[in-house]
Design brief:
With about 425 residues, this protein is α/β, with parallel strands linked by helices. The protein has 17 helices and eleven strands. Bound molecules: pyridoxal-5'-phosphate. It comes from Aquitalea magnusonii.
Length: about 425
Amino acid sequence: MPATLPVSLLAALQSKQALLWLNPCLGSALPASAPTAEQVHEAAARLQRCAGLLAMLFPELAATQGQIESALHDASALYALPEYRGVQGQCWLKGDHALPVAGSIKARGGFHEVLAHAEALALQHGVLQPEDDRRLLAGAAARSLFASHRVVVGSTGNLGLSIGIMAAALGFQAVVHMSVEAKEWKKARLRQRGVTVVEHAGDYAAAVAAGRATAEADPNSYFVDDEHSLPLLLGYAAAAAALAAQLAAQGAVVDAAHPLFVYLPCGVGGAPGGITFGLKLLFGPHVHCFFAEPVASPCMLVQLASGSDAPLSVYDIGLDNRTEADGLAVGLASPLVAPLMRAELSGVFTVGDDDLFRLRLQVEDHCQLALEPSAAAAVRGPDWLCNSTAGQAYLAAHGLQQQLADAHHVVWTTGGALVPPEEHQRFRQRGLSRAG
Ligand SMILES: *Cc1c(COP(=O)(O)O)cnc(C)c1O
């Protein structure tokens, strides 16, 4: 019995009404198990010392010396949308939909975890010394070591792409377990790269469970666990410093008089949770993070609103977890991330699939950026904050109404660059058919 959710919230969620939920536990203490700032710095340092290696492995990274980073786009063009009437402050889009090589936000966590595993394995086998240049990991000794090891992941698609591409590039045997929601082109692209794709009839959680089970049975297998992984979380958290530097370069100050609002699409919670964790380390109470989830899959909302660490899924409250936003089609939130977000997340807003395609179309037409549907989930964040009753209540409770004109809004766009043109065309048509 889902007796743990307030009755009116439960009814609104079950009727798939889009809503903004505010987290009553924001500002409570982090659990003792929370990562440290030191760990986030180490993850950023790992990505830096592996940049030369990445530039060797992927020709498209040569121009940026192996940096995996995305642009911060001015999103003033969004003010033309009716939803942005009443939005005060400056709007930005953080363009992780175009992160190199993997084409989604999963490049951050996924590449970090595969690189951490490759380093650890090479150190353990004496193929690498701690101070060595990481380009050695592309050498013959490391490659023959990796060839006898397997990297396994369960995914709805984008994590599989990120892990599969990086693991295969380093010479690992890469195996990706995927759910039925995963798109055909993602499977095809992985197979092209020499990755083994195993398909499962169940949902995302079933694919993860299957991957975990096969990896546990094999001592030479390493399982990337989207539901529990600290290295993934830390790779995402490292993005916070990059955003801070980009804002600073634009002359955008973040402090009590200039609050920062960040809106992030949420699936299992690792990517948006890691970024929120990193941003809170840097900006404390001056950053306010909101997640966006599909109305059929609001797993983080349900978990946090339950007020308990006991797992509560969207199925438990009668939702079906069916959405075209395949990157967000997750029924149960990460038990690693949810307790962190209980202390740090400002709130969650939900979005229906029709709205998702409409918002995707508007970003394409107004900002000339081609997103996948999941990546458009956060676009209405500034609207929810500035124009809804719940948003106004949040601003009032935090004394932010006067500061709103000097605020910055960052809408995180999370995937799309690898989506084939014909798929983008289909997304576009669906957006047009609902535009009127
Ligand atoms: C995975 C993904 C997300 C959300 O990340 P989680 O770690 O699952 O919460 C958002 N958008 C896209 C496009 C994704 O692939």
